[in-house]
Design brief:
- By secondary structure, the chain is α+β, with helices and mostly antiparallel strands.
- The chain folds into 2 domains: about 1-105 and about 180-305, 2-Layer Sandwich (D-amino Acid Aminotransferase, Chain A, domain 1); about 125-175, Dna Ligase, domain 1 (2-Layer Sandwich).
- It is built from 10 helices and 14 strands.
- It has helices at about 10-25, 40-45, 60-70, 80-90, 100-105, 110-120, 160-170, 220-235, 265-270, 275-285, and strands spanning about 1-5, 30-35, 50, 75-80, 125, 140-145, 155, 175, 185-190, 195-210, 210-220, 240-245, 250-260, 300-305.
- The strands form 3 sheets. It has a 6-stranded antiparallel beta sheet with strand order 13-12-9-10-11-14, with helices on both faces. The protein has a 4-stranded parallel beta sheet with strand order 3-2-1-4.
- Strand 1 (about 1-5), helix 1 and strand 2 form a beta-alpha-beta unit.
- Helix 4 (about 80-90) runs antiparallel to helix 5 (about 100-105).
- The longest helix is centred in the last third of the chain and has 14 residues, at about 220-235.
- It is globular, with a radius of gyration of 20 Å.
- It starts with a strand and ends in an 11-residue tail after the last strand.
């Protein structure tokens, strides 16, 4: 199989994981990656397996991606950043993520809220600050871009003055009730036929730049069942993440869905998730034994730090 990881950026650990499987099982998998910046850290890991493409919002992006898939015989594309998910879903390429309507839904936090509400999946109260009379009864609340990504321009709002400021400062914002409980990200590894190959639950202990910097693997059967419901109704054809928090009464509420691999997947991989092997086997039509949170070293912690990459340009 030939897999393509898009916009690899800083996902060095993930690239190394796929490369390690590629070396360990020669002849089963070839891994390529795309990046607009050839000096990005993960691009250095890919070496000759790197393919440079235009930005996803470039008019030439679709043509370049279709040509790349044809030239390289790509069997599955795994997007690693949110903007790629919706763009790839609209193209005639083998994207392992979401259909176009589902990608549009999860890319829009207001549509995500309405989608979860319609299926009676517990979620966080969400509203559009632009609606007349849409002001919170209590503070704090949380405000972020309706189509944002990576925690950019997401702010806690503590009073009416801040609320009035941020609803104009943030481009097309949504506002959400502030949840006090722990934040959980669920990695739902979905195979080529829509079957769940694995679910890992990660408690986010610390976040930097929208990405987890410290976390631990947990078991929570209620959260796991809600994730399975999201997968059943969303019908992805590749890995997704489901994020949520506990409210004051201890109920887990889904806050976001990302149609891609999560940035904290290396923790689940270290806990025993054979991601590359499972996906390769699934796309080859082989049987994969599903794994749940109980199978992935509950209690294992991760702490991230910066590491430099060096190269010389002549």
């Amino acid at each position: 199989m030939t897999f393509l990881l898009t916009s690899v950026g800083r996902r060095v650990e993930l690239v190394r994981h796929f490369q390690a499987y590629e070396r360990r099982e020669p002849g089963r998998l070839r891994v390529l990656g795309t990046e607009i910046d050839k000096f990005a850290p993960a691009a250095q890991e890919l070496g000759s397996a790197l393919r440079q493409l235009p930005r996803v919002d470039d008019p030439d992006y679709a043509t370049a991606m279709v040509r790349l898939c044809a030239d390289e015989g790509i069997d599955a594309i795994f997007p690693l950043i949110d903007p790629d998910v919706e763009a790839l879903a609209r193209m005639d390429v083998p994207v392992a993520a979401l259909s176009a309507p589902a990608a549009e839904t999860v890319s829009d936090k207001w549509l995500t809220f309405k989608w979860l509400q319609a299926r009676e999946i517990p979620t966080v109260n969400t509203w559009l600050p632009s609606d007349a009379g849409a002001t919170p009864r209590n503070y704090p609340v949380f405000m972020k871009p309706r189509r944002g990504s990576g925690g950019k321009d997401a702010f806690p709002v503590r009073n009416r003055h801040e609320y009035d400021f941020f609803r104009h400062y943030i481009d097309a914002p949504v506002a959400q009730e502030f949840l006090p409980g722990k934040e959980i990200t669920a990695d739902a590894v979905v195979g080529s036929k829509g079957a769940i190959l694995a679910i890992a639950l990660r408690e986010r202990l610390a976040v930097r730049g929208g990405e987890v910097s410290r976390g631990r693997l947990i078991v929570d059967h209620d959260v796991e069942e809600k994730v399975r419901q999201v997968v059943r109704d969303l019908e992805p054809s590749g890995p997704i993440t489901v994020q949520g928090m506990y409210d004051e009464s201890g109920v887990f509420r889904v806050t976001e869905i990302n149609g891609r691999m999560g940035g904290g997947l290396p923790l689940a991989i270290e806990g025993g998730l054979a991601l590359a092997q499972s996906l390769t086997s699934s796309w080859l039509g082989e049987q994969v034994t599903p794994r749940g949170p109980c199978d992935l070293s509950p209690g294992m912690h991760m702490a991230r730090f910066d590491q430099s990459v060096f190269w010389r340009v002549l």
